[in-house]
Structure prediction request, 714 residues.
Amino acid sequence: MQEIRYGGKMARVTLQTIADRLGVSRATVSYAFSRPDQLSDDLRRRILQVADELGYAGPNAAARSLRLGRAGAVGLLFSETLAYAFADPYALGFFQGLATAAEEAGVGLLILPLPRGGTRTPPVLDAVVDAFCVVSLPDGHPALAEVLSRRLPVVVVDEPYVPGHPFLGIDEPAAGARAARHLIELGHRRIGVAMVGLHGDGRTGWADPARQRGAVFEAMRGRRSGYEAACVSAGVDWASVPFYELARNSRAAGREAGHALLGRTPRPTAILANTDVLALGILDAAADLGLDVPGDLSVVGFSDSAAEEAGLTTIRQAKQEIGAAAGRLLLEPPDEPERLLFPHELIVRASTAPPRP
Amino acid sequence: MQEIRYGGKMARVTLQTIADRLGVSRATVSYAFSRPDQLSDDLRRRILQVADELGYAGPNAAARSLRLGRAGAVGLLFSETLAYAFADPYALGFFQGLATAAEEAGVGLLILPLPRGGTRTPPVLDAVVDAFCVVSLPDGHPALAEVLSRRLPVVVVDEPYVPGHPFLGIDEPAAGARAARHLIELGHRRIGVAMVGLHGDGRTGWADPARQRGAVFEAMRGRRSGYEAACVSAGVDWASVPFYELARNSRAAGREAGHALLGRTPRPTAILANTDVLALGILDAAADLGLDVPGDLSVVGFSDSAAEEAGLTTIRQAKQEIGAAAGRLLLEPPDEPERLLFPHELIVRASTAPPRP
DNA sequence: CCCTCCTTCTTAATCCATTAAGACCTTAAT
DNA sequence: ATTAAGGTCTTAATGGATTAAGAAGGAGGG
Prediction:
């Protein structure tokens, strides 16, 4: 807690300073701020006036938090940089839900930077919060261990599932399968896949099944296994399904994946993308190549976060509701931690159709 | 700070608990966590092991913050609900910049709910932070007084200007005038104005000059006065300029304003909107009416936050840089508070042209 | 053997506030 | 006059940790 000094040096003003000035006890001064009814109006007025004269900054927040055992804030830990998070429609939807819940409860939302080598202090260990919300952390991320070591209520969203703590997300394998089955049912058999967020190593390019299954992000692993299961049960050989992995979730990345996938022979008649943003990039690539969507190519996105205007078929998940539910669980931790799977829904729009005969 | 109880009751574990268990002093245990070099390896190992066995949650964050006089977080106060902020492109750009600066410094960003009647605890007074960033608060908002009472470093962005504290924003009157002058220079004289964020009273509809000047948001007041100054100096009678005020910054609101303004006789040949989102709505309204933009109608937005794809002429302001600069000032408060006005720039796109003869 | 220097740990002050319970005084009722 | 009841303020315990300075013990040098 830094202090502003006006001109010369100035000892910090505390309740005691004021008490000494007036010859009353510290408790009395405290009551003047927190329990007006415990004091005579006259004394209270004098106390507040002296406080003002001395430049008292009000009861110290850290001291109150220590004494009261309450922080009035919940911590949020997100896998990506915030610059990224604030640009990702899915994350924003979730934040909206969470922030609204926090707002209604009158508690703050402390957005924490991921612990990094260079930082002077470990943000998670020093966070003055009543609970943590962990969103989309890869398997084995050290920040998760730090969070758990604090022994505060923890809610995990999307990944990774931590036994003993509430979990919120969707049934990823089922949702992935739903997306893939949609293409299968339309008659597609030459399907390509573009996925972002499998590994944290920044690789972009073709990924074989072994690498696919080794993804460190649990939710994406599940989503992919849903893709695979639906394909396999339709008789598609998964090993032959071209699978392009991206490091960044951007339209440009999607376009790159689109060019890679559409450059294959035989050309896929449909592409599964694990985010809407990626799917939009794939539509760009299709446009580059003069392909008609959905005539020559069907595309399915994920999340329904940026899909509507583009007429993209996608899986809708209740971002805001998940955020709001996370907020509620943080504020009133349940006795029995539950694994809550929210509904998802296939939204069919104009980007998918049967393949041309 | 809530505590998780596994099964039965369990006294809270503190440094002292561990110290007692091992027959060492509390200080020793503290060193085991914060200064490994002060202890023999053997004792340190034993301490950490006992800590683990007892389920110690690590040094209490509030207590550390109190003792160290450092919170490791900066508070952010924003005029709108967060659900709104997370949907507003301008706010998001600013957040990105701020969050990135915070992230690089390894400090948290505590997003505070605005104090409301119903809340149990005053969020601003209880916020454990080292500094506050206040963004776009209306004149006389009580939260600002609370922030100032904390006597921590404060940085204000956009509004309101608080003497003695750093201020970041743009030269609003100049930027407003630049936008209006663009239309004037193209030859427009029948200009309409649509503005959001003047008052906090939720009113939508025509606003006369008195109400315009009574706006409680300083930045918007300045922007508007720039509009007026440019018009007046071109000989346009401001009292006759139709001025439509909106309560919400949304595309739908813009459309409403567009219909209101374009329904006037004589119809304006150009409209100034004080946000891009509003401007997009006005384009919608023009499309509804079958008007050609920019043939029948020119539209100028503001902020360059959602303008590019739509080909909207707008004033660009460096959202992210302002956010990043705010972050730096929060982390290293300057001796002399400065009023920093960032550059703005007119970006001419396809939504403006000379009026038809 | 004595002195010095380390290493390792302890002492004790400090950070700032909250609040139950008790003390004291005044007023009102019986 | 006596007692009860309020009103107003104080006492003292409490929340959990950090760190400068001091003490005790062992190792090395002369």
